[in-house]
Amino acid sequence: MKSWKEVYADSDFSIYNLPWGIYSGPDGRKQMGMRIGDEVINLGYVASLGILDEYKVPTTIWYRDQLNDFIALGKKTTSGVRNIIQQELCNDRSKLKDKAQAFIPMDSVTMHMPLIVGDYTDFYSSIEHATNVGKMFRDPENALLPNWKHLPVGYHGRASSIVVSGTDIHRPIGQIKPPDSAPILSPTQRLDFELEMGTIIGKQSSLGSRVSTDKARDYIFGMVIFNDWSARDIQKWEYVPLGPFLGKSFASSISPWIVPIEALEHFKVQGPDQEPPVLDYLKYKGDHNYDLHLEVIIRTKENIDTVVCRSNFKYMYWNMLQQVAHHTVNGCNLNVGDIMASGTISGKDIDSYGSMLELSWGGKNFIQLNDGTQRTFLENGDTVIMRAYGDKNGVKVGFGSVKGKVLEAMPL
Engineering a disulfide at 187: which of 18, 152, 221, 409 sits with its beta carbon 3.0 to 4.6 angstroms away? Predict the structure, then answer.
């Protein structure tokens, strides 16, 4: 495709992307937008030109402060609207071509949380990450728990503390167990990031029904970058027997633009062999992993950046279709706006490990930063920036970034 809209060659937001988001301009009014290059497409204005009349979207939808109501209209409508705009941006005679009001510079808008998230599930789907954690905390020879290769392990997270990129994160406080004393209440000393991708559910299922792997893609609207902030020392003391709680629930950050799943078709690749064979309900046909380049940057107080991790979403052992099928096999219902996070995405090499827990190997090794300082875990004033993109045969589709700065703990 060739667009008349000028976009720099390395942009995440090419004509092949066109992600969805919620923005506000100088007047502060939140509304729906798409992104092309360094501009936001004002969908309310575009609709007023009659370009989108075919899909009969209520005018008020374009001016909602969340995407849930639009997504709930179904893929026939959401994909149709995106296709029309894509075509118009490639049509030299488009009504949009001379309409400056349709395009707003990114530097003049504020991005907001794109969804009302009803429920959030965090999976544990990278075999490299699960193996690393098992080696550190359980048995180096038998790192994976007996169930790990039989089902996509997951837990129910806290939806209320999912925040949009740019939101500062206060260092959490919780119970910590020092080696030689009783538990204490303290700010975490082991604050970490987790490099993940988030799947946005775009279709409701009914309670008691199941979604098969054959049908699961119909329930996936799009994806975001997901930073599942973690307090490792709080988590270590609390997680037995019922799993993570305060060590995870204080914050998770998402990128503001939801990349539609259709925009990622070009980057599909084969997933890893699954041995032993999975149960029938987890079997699937075709390629459903995605070759998406991922990186994590730590920016210090002095604004000096260091790339501490380069990974790839293609490494995932359990794919999104399997996660949806497993999530619903017991009859659990899905709702529009639910998020399913992938779990930390790690590769085989140390520089592809998706958390500081792994990069520092539980705090035993120092991570060298470009400002001359070292880290085992995050310090106050550090900003974590995550990026994700696919780039293949001249087609680039990216997610922009998700970032968050660590602030000191709130006073007790």
Answer: 409
- The topology (CATH level 3) of 120-407 is Fumarylacetoacetate hydrolase; domain 2 (3.90.850)
- DSSP category for residue 254: E
State how far the Cα of 402 lies from the Cα of 221, in Å rounded to an integer. Answer: 19
Are the C-beta atoms of 247 and 371 separated by less than 8 Å? no
Q: Are strands 289-290 and 20-24 parallel, antiparallel or unpaired?
A: unpaired
Which of 331, 360, 357, 328 has its CA nearest to residue 343?
A: 357
Residue recorded with tokens 């180096």: 140
Task: Tell me the domain boundaries of the chain.
Answer: 20-112, 120-407
SS3 48: helix
Among 3.40.1160.10, 3.30.70.20, 2.30.30.230, 3.40.30.10, what is the CATH number of 20-112? 2.30.30.230
Q: Which residues of 215-248 are buried (b: 16+ CB within 10 A; e: fewer)?
A: ebbebbbbbbbbbbbbbbbbbebbeeeeebebbb
Residue found by looking up tokens 């930063």 in the block: 369
Per-residue pLDDT of the chain (412 residues), as tens digits, is: 999 999 999 999 999 999 999 999 999 999 999 999 999 999 999 999 999 999 999 999 999 999 999 999 999 999 999 999 999 999 999 999 989 999 999 999 999 999 999 999 999 999 999 999 999 998 899 999 999 999 999 999 999 999 999 999 999 999 999 999 999 999 999 999 999 999 999 999 999 999 999 999 999 999 999 999 999 999 999 999 999 999 999 999 999 999 999 999 999 999 999 999 999 999 999 999 999 999 999 999 999 999 999 999 999 999 999 999 999 999 999 999 999 999 999 999 999 999 999 999 999 999 999 999 999 999 999 999 999 999 999 999 999 999 999 999 999 8
The closest of 2, 365, 323, 293 to 155, measured between CA atoms, is 323
Just list the catalytic residues.
129
Nearest CA to 46 out of 15, 55, 16 is that of 55
340 token code pair: 């399913």
Q: How far is CA 306 from the centre of its chain?
A: 21
- DSSP designation for 332: P
